[in-house]
């Protein structure tokens, strides 16, 4: 590894000031699970690394009076999994955080680092998009609040600008009858990262949902919100409707084709995973195709 | 890594050929192209920046057209390097143009690309996907340029 200055600011403002002063050769480090690998391979050779690990404001999970739940960017996956607030209001996210990667990564990697890295083969981005989460970004210029759609720009690309850091993730105030399902597909049981995943979030009764959001991720360069799932809104979900939505989801995506799986295989996996997950979500007989 | 791509362009083969060999147009349409110098009729020196997450590579690539049949086909080879990342890139590329219905042109590219050095550590899958995204952006830029000319 080459030499660099290692800064450990204690406030978000101090971190933003260090980023603004440092310019292009400055890198943020949260859990370091991705960054340290790149430093060791000398894929990045920053002059300064700004660690976020001492910033108390970036930790903790709180509920505001408005009902919104705020998760600090440096909250680790294991903390999300164990949070009574998350488990109580968004059990799909707590479950996701308890199964992603492996225990070492869950105890070291942060939710903010995960989102900022924008690797498509991950779990949280699709789920947070389905939930309708937002992110708060900070820089010396102030604060911006973006939807997940706005934040997740493209393959390994987010809306984060130079000098900006992700401060927290906001989950909307829990809605009446909200219900979530998250399912991931691994190529082999020994793999950690998902080859495809599906997130479903509905509000209103399961027998007649008012709102249905279906997101496909990991199979695509960036998570995709499936418009066709809205055909399940304001109607009684049926096996035929679910099959139609699952097929539409598989057709709507532009799947990734890489060493993990080729595009057409991913499309098939998405159709089956979506059909099974929707059936499970709405308590209908599962699809086994 | 082998890259095979095709796209329909809204122009004659002659117009498409002229466009693809125009360094000013290429500088505007190739995503990440920071500069291009024309060394001779058949030699170019281009600097292309590619970013995957926090890794940015900047390759200075010298490309030579080794064979061509104007408006139909060409083959070019090139090498380049990113000295900061101690990485090299080599490509052997063929471009073919064919008339398609309604005055359009079928534009096909076949390229063998080799990336050696540290950048290679990022993984072939990521590079291939990135190449796909860059191709889509390139074709979109070309098409909107042609549409602007036509309109
Ligand atoms: C073996 C292994 C298996 C994995 N499996 C999975 C999996 O199954 N599912 C999954 O979802 N993920 C998986 N991951 C990724 C994991 O979730 C990491 O935690 C995450 O990608 C990076 O988090 P980090 O906190 O360590 O980030 P770091 O390595 O510290 O940073 C990553 C990048 O984000 C930037 N960054 C970090 N925090 C911020 C911030 N607050 N604001 C702005 N920029 C920031 C850094 O500058 C850097 O560019 C896996 C990782 C490993 C190593």
Largest beta-sheet details of chain B? 7 strands, antiparallel
* Residue runs with pLDDT of under 50 for 5 or more positions of chain B: none
Largest sheet of chain A: 5 strands, antiparallel
H/E order of the elements of chain A? EHEHEEEHHHHHHEEHEEEEEEEHH
Specify the number of helices of chain A: 11
**Average of the residue pLDDT scores of chain B:** 92
Strand order of the largest sheet of chain B: 1-7-6-5-4-3-2
**Helices and strands of chain B: which structural class?**
alpha+beta
Helix content of chain A: 25-40%
What overall form of chain B do the CA principal axes indicate? globular
- Protein chain pair with the most extensive contact, residues per chain: A-B, 22 and 20 residues
* Beta strand count of chain A: 14
What does this structure look like?
The complex is a heterodimer of chains A (289) and B (151). Chain A is globular. By secondary structure, chain A is an alpha+beta fold. Chain A contains eleven helices and 14 strands. The longest helix of chain A is centred in the last third of the chain and has 20 residues. The mean pLDDT of chain A is 95. Chain A starts with a strand and ends in a 7-residue tail after the last helix. Chain A has a five-stranded antiparallel beta sheet. A four-stranded antiparallel beta sheet of chain A has the order 11-12-13-14, sandwiched between helices. A three-stranded parallel beta sheet of chain A has the order 1-3-2, covered by helices on one side. A seven-stranded antiparallel beta sheet of chain B has the order 1-7-6-5-4-3-2. Chain B is globular, with a radius of gyration of 15 Å. The N and C termini of chain B lie far apart (38 Å). Chains A and B meet through loops of A and helix 3 of B. The complex binds flavin-adenine dinucleotide. The site of flavin-adenine dinucleotide (FAD) has 30 residues of chain A, from strand 2, helix 7 and strand 10.
């Amino acid at each position: 590894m080459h030499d660099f200055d290692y800064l450990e600011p204690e406030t978000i403002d101090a971190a933003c000031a260090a980023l603004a002063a440092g310019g292009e050769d400055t890198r943020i480090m949260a859990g370091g699970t991705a960054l340290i690998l790149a430093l060791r391979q000398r894929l990045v050779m920053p002059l300064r690394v700004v660690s976020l690990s001492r910033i108390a404001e970036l930790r903790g999970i709180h509920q505001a009076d408005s009902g919104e739940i705020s998760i600090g960017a440096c909250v680790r996956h294991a903390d999300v999994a164990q949070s009574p607030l998350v488990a109580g209001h968004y059990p799909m996210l707590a479950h996701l955080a308890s199964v992603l990667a492996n225990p070492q990564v869950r105890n070291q990697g942060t939710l903010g680092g995960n989102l900022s890295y924008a690797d498509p083969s991950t779990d949280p981005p699709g789920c947070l998009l389905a939930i309708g989460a937002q992110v708060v970004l900070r820089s010396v210029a102030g604060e911006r609040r973006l939807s997940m759609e706005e934040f997740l720009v493209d393959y390994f690309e987010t809306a984060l600008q130079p000098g900006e850091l992700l401060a927290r993730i906001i989950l909307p105030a829990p809605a009446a009858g909200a219900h979530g399902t998250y399912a991931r597909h691994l190529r082999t049981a020994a793999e950690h990262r998902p080859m495809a995943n599906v997130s479903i979030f509905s509000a209103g009764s399961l027998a007649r949902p008012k709102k249905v959001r279906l997101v496909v991720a990991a199979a695509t360069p960036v998570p995709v919100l499936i418009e066709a799932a809205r055909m399940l809104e304001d109607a009684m979900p049926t096996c035929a409707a679910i099959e139609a939505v699952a097929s539409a989801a598989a057709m709507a995506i532009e799947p990734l084709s890489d060493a993990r799986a080729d595009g057409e295989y991913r499309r098939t996996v998405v159709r089956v995973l979506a059909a099974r997950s929707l059936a499970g979500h709405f308590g209908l007989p599962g699809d086994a195709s | 890594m082998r890259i095979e791509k095709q796209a329909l362009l809204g122009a004659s083969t002659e117009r498409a050929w002229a466009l693809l060999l125009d360094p000013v147009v290429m500088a505007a349409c190739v995503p990440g192209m920071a500069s291009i110098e024309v060394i001779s009729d058949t030699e170019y020196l281009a600097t292309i920046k590619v970013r995957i997450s926090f890794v940015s590579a900047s390759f200075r690539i010298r490309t030579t057209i080794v064979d061509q049949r104007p408006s139909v086909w060409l083959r070019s080879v090139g090498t380049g390097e990113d000295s900061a990342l101690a990485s090299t890139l080599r490509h052997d590329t063929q471009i073919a143009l064919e008339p398609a219905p309604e005055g359009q042109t079928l534009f096909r590219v076949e390229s063998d690309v080799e990336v050696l050095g540290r950048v290679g550590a990022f993984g072939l899958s990521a590079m291939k996907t990135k190449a796909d995204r860059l191709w889509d952006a390139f074709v979109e830029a070309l098409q909107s340029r042609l549409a602007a000319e036509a309109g």
